[in-house]
Design goal:
The protein is mostly beta strands. It has 2 helices and 32 strands. It has 3 domains: 129 residues, Leucine-rich repeat, LRR (right-handed beta-alpha superhelix) (Alpha-Beta Horseshoe), CATH 3.80.10.10; 195 residues, Immunoglobulins (Immunoglobulin-like, Sandwich); 103 residues, no CATH class.
């Protein structure tokens, strides 16, 4: 029995160790499984450079020090508890360290609170409440985070804030905040290092806000005597005494999230090993607001939770799977699926239309095979109402490459109907290599949907799955 348990434990540990750290291959990041030679599209391959659970600031020394914003706060007898702030940000996290003087903290009362204020778009043309920091030249406030950092026993607790946005007038004053996210430990973490340091982080990608720039402003205050976690006290009210306050700090950070049209490959290579891409990980494309379309290969059998949350520019998904992946509704949170088009294999069209979540797309259409084309010049003659020529011009159109059919020779494309102002419907004309023995109807051996039908001395190609039309330069 012991040997069986050991073997099982060894197998589990081997499976866990086979997963590598995220690796960038092409435009995307992947978690690679060396044992199974499979790959999972990852959440932009991010490894958090800072731990908030190690009771140390040593990892801050490993960062690019030029990217850290820091400020020593001027001594203000009204707000003397907060002495210094330090902030580092990237496309995923906002990290901060608050240095406080415990001697300046009164005895703890229920729900002592930390507020974090963000001018997320780095603009003075949005938000309000700038007077809180007595710094009207430093931009306005778009977002506020509000949560307890001590409990009613005076014990340190991890920061789990409400998130609200400014809903008052531009440059306005007062307490005009509208919640957009309830108490959440998922978007935040913090620790106390002794009694004088608070280290924390906000998960920027999970904050439900769209208007980020490549720089922002951030400010903090510590509020004593926060009587109820569910009430928002008025500024400077007796029940909301602020004992630490900072002016806003300017922070730069990079943004390099996937955008535009993304094609996920069916396989990737890394260090001369080929990995089949079998899954899209949890939150893989979360809040990639500039992602417009994505193509999913038929090798993908699993799509993780919240994979496309907040991708509100997404207009189309092409899924090559013949069987719909089973997914949760949260995969497409904050996306108007009624305005999105889903392209799937023709033989799977009805299956996708009946599948949970997938059936909510506004349009579900079959994927059409790309049409191979070739350029050809035409002399176009324009005539008036009296059928007399007005002028002519030579134009170039992209025509379909006619199928090769054994025993027959392609002659030309001929117009069935339409004109260049609208669209032209065309059909292929063939001649039999041996007319005397050719039957009246011939099926293309390589594509049974295509048939040649005799029309006098020539044959006309019909295609039950497609009508060729020309609109200017396009063929469909």
């Amino acid at each position: 029995m012991r040997n069986k348990l050991f073997s099982l434990l060894f197998a589990v540990m081997a499976s866990i160790s086979s997963l590598s750290a995220s690796v960038k291959i092409g435009d995307l990041y992947y978690n690679l499984d060396a044992i199974n030679s499979t790959a999972e599209v990852a959440d932009n391959g991010y490894t958090n450079p800072i731990s908030v659970n190690d009771q140390s600031l040593a990892d801050w020394d490993l960062l690019d020090q030029t990217k850290i914003a820091e400020a020593v706060l001027p001594q203000n007898p009204l707000f003397s508890a907060l002495k210094k702030i330090r902030v580092y940000a990237d496309e995923n996290y906002i990290h901060y360290v608050l240095f406080i003087d415990p001697a300046e903290l009164p005895s703890h009362t229920p729900y002592d609170a930390l507020h974090i204020y963000l001018n997320a778009d780095n603009s003075d043309e949005t938000g309000g409440f700038w007077d809180l920091f007595d710094a009207p030249d430093q931009g306005n406030t778009d977002l506020m985070f509000e949560g307890a950092i001590w409990n009613d026993e005076g014990e340190h607790i991890s920061y789990a804030p409400y998130v609200s946005y400014w809903s008052g007038e531009l440059n306005g004053e007062g307490w005009y905040w509208t919640p957009i996210m309830g108490v959440s430990s998922e978007i935040s973490a913090s620790q106390f290092i002794g009694d004088s340091i608070i280290e924390g982080q906000l998960v920027k990608k999970l904050i439900p806000w769209e208007n980020w720039s490549d720089a922002f402003e951030i400010g903090f205050d510590i509020q004593q005597n926060w009587e109820s976690a569910g009430l928002l006290p008025q500024n400077d009210s007796p029940d909301g005494e602020r004992i630490g306050r900072s002016k806003k700090l300017h922070v730069d950070f990079p943004q390099s999230l996937p955008s535009g049209d993304i094609i996920i490959p069916a396989s990737v290579e890394h260090e001369e090993v080929t990995y089949n891409v079998t899954s899209i990980g949890n939150k893989a494309f979360i809040r990639c607001a500039d992602l417009t379309s994505i193509a999913i290969p038929n090798s993908v059998v699993n799509i993780g939770d919240e994979a496309f949350v907040g991708c509100n520019s997404l207009v189309s998904i092409t899924d090559l799977a013949t069987e719909p992946q089973t997914i949760n509704a949260n995969v497409f949170t904050d996306i108007d699926l009624s305005a999105c088009t889903l392209y799937v294999p023709a033989e799977s069209l009805e299956t996708f239309k009946a599948a949970d979540v997938w059936k909510d797309f506004g349009s579900i259409l079959p994927i059409e095979d790309p049409i191979e084309t070739e350029e050809e010049e035409f002399n176009i003659v324009y005539k008036g109402d009296d059928n007399k020529q007005i002028y002519s011009e030579i134009i170039t159109l992209h025509l379909p490459v006619a199928p090769k059919i054994e025993g027959f020779t392609f002659i030309k494309w001929q117009i069935v109907a339409g004109d260049l102002k609208d669209e032209i419907v065309i059909q292929a004309v063939y001649e039999a290599d041996e007319p005397s023995s050719a039957p009246s109807v011939v099926t293309n051996p390589s594509n049974p949907a295509q048939k040649l039908i005799r029309n006098g001395s020539v044959y006309i190609l019909t295609d039950d799955s497609r009508t060729y039309t020309l609109t200017g330069q396009e063929v469909r």
